[in-house]
UniProtKB/TrEMBL annotation:
Transmembrane segments: none annotated. This is DNA helicase RecQ. GO terms for cellular component: bacterial nucleoid; cytoplasm; replisome. Residues 225-374 form the Helicase C-terminal domain. GO terms for molecular function: 3'-5' DNA helicase activity; ATP binding; DNA binding; four-way junction helicase activity; hydrolase activity; metal ion binding. It comes from Chitinophaga eiseniae. Its cofactor is Zn(2+); Mg(2+). The gene is recQ. The chain holds residues 1 to 528 of 733 of the full protein.
Amino acid sequence: MAVVKERLMDALREHFGFDSFKGNQEKIINSILSGKDTFVIMPTGGGKSLCYQLPALMSPGCALIVSPLIALMKNQVDLVRGYSSKDNVAHFLNSTLSKAQIKKVRADLTAGKTKLLYVAPETLTKQENLDFFKELEISFIAVDEAHCISEWGHDFRPEYRRLKEMIDQISDKLPIIALTATATPKVQSDIVKNLGLNKASIFISSFNRPNLYYEIRPKRKKDQTIKDIVKFIHQHKGKSGIIYTLNRKTTEELADMLVANGVKAVAYHAGLDPSTRAQRQDMFLHEDTEVIVATIAFGMGIDKPDVRFVIHYNIPKSLENYYQETGRAGRDGLEGHCICYYSHKDVQKLEHLMRDKSLSEREMGAQLINETVAYAESAVCRRKVILHYFGEHFETENCGQCDNCRNPKEKIEVKNRVVIMLKAIRALEERFGSEYVINVITGKTSPQINTYRHDQLDVFGEGKEFDAHFWNSLMRQMMLEGLIEKDIEEYGLLKVTDKGTKFLKKPYSIMVALNHQFDEDAVDDEEE
Ligand code: ADP
Ligand code: ZN
């Protein structure tokens, strides 16, 4: 039953001092208050916390909030306490508490004084805690950062997998509210399956960030790329920005070079000692430095509203990561410029990083990388590609806020060239990788080609009027089209898919925008 609107508004004003709800908040809160399982998908900054805090404060009993980061738990509890006059309205229970502190928390819970209890998943693995919760009146369970359940999410936590089983031990009648800022269809279905949310009301907010400008730039040699970055920063003098790189060494090098070019910059990565990290984070927050050059270790829980640009010096390992990392720009709704430098060499670097992983991890990783590559090489509106990735259909002729919309690329017919590629892969019996196939197509000999007598094949040199860059780019697009695939088990061997076989039988028109620009023999002066 929907709670009377006035009562909700009064509670909102009383507990938080806000005059209106944001987005879906009111509907979500009604859903929880009426005892339904509820699934909330809302981008960062959308106001997720209030969705469980308010109903927790309004319901009899105490709500359990499962949260993955012990470090952030104290913060959240302090925030709730800040709104209330009573300190015992919210507590957390995790491994950082002393025996005496645990006793106090338990006493407040038993006395019914506490409305929100933040717990780590580990807390729920302890039988004595479960037994204790069984005796309490629990209003509902909120699972924050629910994407941690999924291996497809950006922050998988195995303990999250066991949550449902532990919740059921407390009671199998407790409503569950799951919240996440990750909305890829795969992650969504993992969450629904794992928490048994089949009958849940689902609330999905739009992930569009209209104020962010998305741009891909070809990555050239290191000094050229850095010159390009310096130029951009000078054009944005005095503004704050983050530059993400793949490895620690590069953060230091890049920061040094920026400093040498008159930019106030510092490096940030997990290899620095905690006090240096805290100090540099503070410098950034207090604008003693303009630019922070960081590995992805930087950003979780950082709330600086006026970050004006986010530059990726290397392509991120998934579009999800890209969305989260660029999402730190323009939190105040004003300008946010997101640039990603892209080269095929960086893609190979990412693939290389996975070499020691298990087969299934490599498969998953390769698929995520492919989606990022698709984004980078696409001639379609960037916003449309990103939102499509989150299962959202974005209707636009021209968003006006991405490079592809501002400077549409010219497209060309490649039907016959696709046929050449497919024939070559077939003629080589699907036993060779991209470089070899392209050598054959462009008629380049090598000792290996001579040994196998592949220079005798019909397709040898059939595509020599185009260079290797062209063929590389076409190959990537054909993978996106699903005409060919890289065999992951036999690392990198090219295969023709069923769709490719059908294409060979009956070729059809294929128009693509070709980006030779990404093949520039860029950076090989970086190690991972
Ligand atoms: P999320 O967890 O989705 O990233 P938060 O819960 O941290 O978002 O909320 C983001 C910001 O929005 C916070 O500063 C919060 O106080 C504010 N906020 C949430 N709901 C409202 C509201 N109804 N009116 C005004 N501000 C709100
Ligand atoms: Zn666009």
